[in-house]
Amino acid sequence: MSKKKKYYVVWNGKKKGIFTSWDACKKQIDGFTGAQYKAFADKEEAELAFTKSYNEYKGKSTKKPTLSAKEKAAYGIPNLESISVDAACAGNPGLMEYRGVLTHNKKEIFKMGPFKNGTNNIGEFLALVHGIALLKSKKMDKLPIYSDSKIAMSWVQKKQCRTNVVFDASNKDILDLILRAEKWLQENSFRNPLLKWETKAWGEIPADFGRK
After folding, report:
1. pLDDT tens across 57-111, in order?
2. Do residues 127 and 86 make contact, with C-beta atoms less than 8 angstroms apart?
3. Does 208 belong to an annotated binding site?
């Protein structure tokens, strides 16, 4: 049986951010005095934790209980006639990329990056807008789009990427993409349902980059 994926938040280390493997996390904390880090069972919880203080999680268990068959059934099943989007980022900020796939067979329909000095939330936002615009151009404006990021979904609804990342020459290409995405949202409407992928019931989103 394969191990369940974990997300490691480093609040204080050589490099701060959310990492998707223990090896990557360990590199940031080894030999670092006062390192602050913790593992989380799902990405959404890790993203939320990174916006808060380490002290709120210190000494507390973050292990998620396994859902019973009845609890899983309550979530229903995902609509396979859809597309799914996801992002990956090594560090926060760090090397970021995003993509979209057909939910039913994981066939990649677009992929962007990697870009320097981005974040996972930015990638999730750009992936959603990219997917929405692509489907609109193909006159498929009723096809649902799955994302496992509530933050990115809220940014799309607000038509603004509310990131705190500092932009300079190293990540100007990301800023250009954000501005273009925000402009598209302001000038276009869409009808595609944006749906939350329920990772705890269905496993990793089909667009997941699979980095353990």
Report:
1. 888 777 666 677 788 888 899 999 999 999 998 877 889 999 999 999 999 999 9
2. yes
3. yes
The response to whether 173 counts as a known ligand-binding position is no
Q: How far apart are CA 99 and CA 87, in angstroms?
A: 6
Contact 96, 64 (CB under 8 A): no
Give dist(CA 93, CA 18) in Å, integer: 9
- If one counts every other C-beta atom within 10 angstroms of the C-beta of residue 32, the result is 15
In whole angstroms, give the CA distance from residue 106 to residue 207. 7
Domains and CATH numbers, the chain: 7-56 (3.40.970.10), 73-202 (3.30.420.10)
CB burial string 73-105: b at 16+ within 10 A, e below: eeeeebeeebbbbbbbbbbbbbebbbbbbbbee
Whether 56 has a binding-site annotation, put simply, is: no
Whole-model pTM?
A: 0.75
Q: Cβ distance 103 to 84 under 8 Å?
A: yes
The verdict on whether residue 141 carries a ligand-binding annotation is no
Section 138-151 average pLDDT: 95
Q: 106 near 119, Cβ under 8 Å?
A: no
Tokens of 7: 């997300």
153-171: string of b/e by CB count within 10 Å (b at 16+)? bebbeeeebebebeeeeeb
